[in-house]
## 1
Amino acid sequence: MGRAVKVALNGEVLDLENASLPVTERGLLYGDGIFETLRLYGGRAFAAGRHHARMVRSAKFLSLPAPPPDLFLLAEEVARLNGHQEGAVRITLTRKSETTALRPDPNTSAATTLITTRALPEGLPHMQRYGVAGRTLPYPLRAEGLTLQNHKTINYLPSLIALRDVPEGEVPILETTGGNLSEAATSNIFWVKEGTLYTPALSTGALPGIAREIVLELAARASMKVAEVLLPKKALLEAEEAFLTNSLIEAAPLTSLDGAPIGSGAPGEVTRLIQELWAKEVLKDVGGEGSTEPMS
Ligand SMILES: Cc1ncc(COP(=O)(O)O)c(C=O)c1O
């Protein structure tokens, strides 16, 4: 028998099968909660300060109690117990409740915290090296100007529906009701045109991704021009290269859209440079190494 999978529920490390929540939990009933997914390198959570800051911002927006910063240390401990030192950690924060009432009881302001860990997806190195194909959907899943979409809430249905509706192995690209591209189902989009690195503005409902934030900083530090703008589908098809970012994939080339190649259809030079800069950033932050293998 393998060793029991560990989780941390409300700060207590438990075997997975012993971890349970009341059926009145508002995360379950109403999606009243937020979460963070972080990558570990050598057992240490990368960019933990940034993830904590985003969680604090979103907790404030939803009037949830702020997450304690030591949650991130506990996350490293759970990952160690599960043998996921090179894996991923998810930290979930939901609002506790003793009733099913829609309005939360003003006298109970407690939050449930849950830490789970997992290994990285197997196809990740391949994705980073060779890239992925993007596919738009016949319906919009983002609206311009809705701030709620800028928070990493546990309401994940738009991404789940998008994943359901694209062919296996392709990445769903989410459109806004205004006809612009916003982001992918679980990552942000970047593209390069005439010496500038672009990403869709947050007003398109894109998540302010931690990897997006890091890439914007890395590019600016490398003296690249960067801009946050609207992205019509045509502009992505006319880009010289494109890539996707999130905390697990770091930066992965986006080589086609709806079957048409983006640029040469192969991973581009700027993508490769960002991958190299990312690996150095990991070294600086947690002393480990970014996982991207050289692409040529
Ligand atoms: C919808 C969406 N956009 C973007 C991202 C990228 O966010 P991050 O860079 O913080 O991992 C995610 C992460 O899962 C996501 O779910």
## 2
Amino acid sequence: MAAYGAQRLAAPRGTRLVLGNALVARLLLSAIHLGVDLRFGAGATGLRLEGGRVAAVETETGSLAATRGVVLATGGFSHDPQLRATLLPAGACDLSPVGAGSTGDGVRFGQSAGASLVRDNLHNAFWTPLSHYRRDDGSQGMFPHTVVDRGKPGIIAVNADGERFTSEAVSYHEFALAMLRAPRANPAFLLCDRRSLWQYGLGAVRPFALSLARHRAHGYLVEGRTLGELAAKLAIDAAGLERTVARYNADARTGVDTAFGIGSDAYQRFLGDLAQRPNPCMRPIETAPFYAIRLHPSDLGTAAGLLTDENARVLDGAGQPVPGLYACGNDMNSIFLGAYPGPGITLGPALTFGTLAARHLAGAATPA
Ligand SMILES: Cc1cc2nc3c(=O)[nH]c(=O)nc-3n(C[C@H](O)[C@H](O)[C@H](O)COP(=O)(O)OP(=O)(O)OC[C@H]3O[C@@H](n4cnc5c(N)ncnc54)[C@H](O)[C@@H]3O)c2cc1C
């Protein structure tokens, strides 16, 4: 704490970097040591082609000649309304990447140079359920329900008919796709009893929260003394909800989810609580009061992007490389074509194809 205090005297944030911050900082340090010329506040506005080859990047502060080539890495098109409307399903929110960027610049620059945008992936974005909460300072926060609550025992998701529509413990991508597919599941409702709320939390409501007043006052967390009261407050079908919870509770006692097989594979059990037997993802919902929050489907980033080859070279409609043009990260079409086999499906390929693009630009041999 003392070290952090000392850092804050000199900087607007703590300077001990961990996780992604540390990774990027180390990369930056390498770039500085190698004398890389870094420009800030110089947003790219387009590419300049000479004789069919990408020869320069136009920026807000002038032209940058590309002696070897240009790597597009502007983060996909999550924040571009036009590309969203064309490529993503209606009714989904726009979460990510949080902050600026992802306005589709890289995709548009690529297309202006003749590149091909892949449109027919299994899914054109990676998806997550999301809830909107209010922070202490009044600003709106967005909570992506990736791995912390959905798979825990005694937490279920229902639609407006009070019916479950998927196993709650599948990947966030599969869960949100189920929300988009199921009737009356946007918004959906993540629901539990007092015991599970205390032990596992629910979205922005932390486990072991001594006071729920703030989240209740903002309407984020809805409370009911009975399931019927909760259903009435959420405008969902009370009889449907009571039927669903009765069946879930009976299944929880045997450990076999007869509706959706929650906890039936290693991924799902990992998101549960291994102390809970016989099924780490199930426990009867029976300790009043009952709680729920609203979930919306949102993208975590786009999967559709520019068609590339094994060296991250951008390809045109005929499958030929656009001379001098590369793409990686979300500007490159997902190598998983929008399927979610497991964690890291965006950052892993981003790092890998960034490296491959750099090796190719440097003229290094392609690894086998
Ligand atoms: C909450 C959340 C959790 C996630 N968790 C995971 C995870 O666990 N594992 C995983 O693999 N992925 C995860 N992802 C996805 C991952 O973060 C993104 O896929 C990844 O950051 C995309 O990298 P990128 O380099 O393509 O784009 P970004 O990281 O968005 O970087 C693009 C950069 O380009 C800049 N830029 C944009 N336009 C221009 C322009 N015209 N000129 C100059 N600069 C420009 C932007 O400002 C930005 O700095 C998560 C995403 C979210 C939102």
